[in-house]
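User: Sequence in, structure out. Go.
Assistant: Echoing your sequence, followed by the structure tokens.
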Amino acid sequence: MQLHACPDGQRRTLTKKLLSDIEIRHLYIIIDDFSELPEEAMRVVVDALLAPLNNWSEEFIKFKIAAYPGRIYYGDIDRTKIDEIYLDLFYLFGTSDVTTMEEHAIAFTKRLIEQRLGRFAKADAEIFFDGQSEDIWRTLFFASMANPRTLGYILHFAYQNQLIHGRRIGVKAIQDAALKYYEEKVASYFLTGRFLHEAFSERCSIYSLKELLESIVARARELRSHKSAVFDKIPGRPPTSHFHVPASFEQLLSSLELNFFLTKYFEMSDRDGRKVSVFALNYGLCQRYTIAFGRPLGEREFRLYFVERVFDYTPIMRTFLEGNQEILCEACGTRQSFDKLEALRMYNMRCPSCSTGTCVVVNLSRKYQPMLAKIQDELLLPQTELGILQTLYAEGEPKRPVFVAAELDCSYQLVGKRAVRLEERGLVKRLRDGQDHRILEITSLATKSYFSSSDLNELDLPPDATQDESTGKN
């Protein structure tokens, strides 16, 4: 039977019949990390594969696609005929109020750890943790945002720092592990991003996000000394880790959220009745830059702490947009002012100057553009190869491809193939261990070329008199 010679309708019927004959009632296709596709590739996948199969299969083919809100293209897929399940904290653990959400998320974190320890270690949690206080579970939630993968990293680093030395895990150990997770796994996004094999404008876009993050963190540190009737009731340093913005600015923060610098925490109404999105800075980042995390407990008025007017970062967003985004016509090159963006969107971004071209929003990094311009083209690498180098550099010792693959969430075969390319460039050594397994080791050339300026992991912030800049701690 030659299916390729049949019309589309007949081909679909025959395919379904063949699968039904072997008692396959549904074909499930799981697609992970969909949002990591470039926009152009995402459109191709949806238009050529997902939409036709979804619309033609009459529920025979079922897709499960993991994507970030605002970072997915639907094409011809009928959204009314698909189920969208959101994994944001407030959707998963309670939308009624922040307190309920936090209580449920903490309970989930505790339950997850206790069940895993019972299943794999055949032991109770108190063997590993310094007591069973609520502070430990709350801190683990803050450090991981109830993300199981992040939680695994936190516990791994806590194991290295505490358990193997015969010490149990306490709140301070979790804070130290969160700091290490931030420094090794999160902050490196900007360090390696300058060498990404993309157009110069794409690398500028990455560093424009660093400028935005620096503005957010600088404001959070500035608010530690803020004086108000609410802040004066807080003993010690007031928490300034959360902020809110109107929902229209969520898209601007999506890439920072995708790379775990911040997390959407809740949706609330602010003091003026506007619906706003509350974001939380990465817990390890807060440890690094001495920002108290969370909100005060006890007083009734602290229930609305996150929507205090001082935490409205709308002016920061607007200042960033005006200074770091340009609207250009792809045809005539005319620049449009930022205040025309909403009007342009109403007319599908058609250029008002030439009437034929399409205007696009270009992200710039005026602060880091000179540094990026100095990067030699021969140092640029694809994302996977940069990830291999970053993993080997962070581990500080040779690792098997399967370990690197687990860190990068890809196959070990892909890591092996890319390692051959890196070896040809003198950036990686492909060796054999005592069991004749292939292991990978970063070379001194790669370390010098890509990681000598480790200060780029740091945010460029105004001086902080309360912080010891050499350690990042009080």
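User: And one key feature?
Assistant: The domain at 381-455 is CATH 1.10.10.10 (Arc Repressor Mutant, subunit A).
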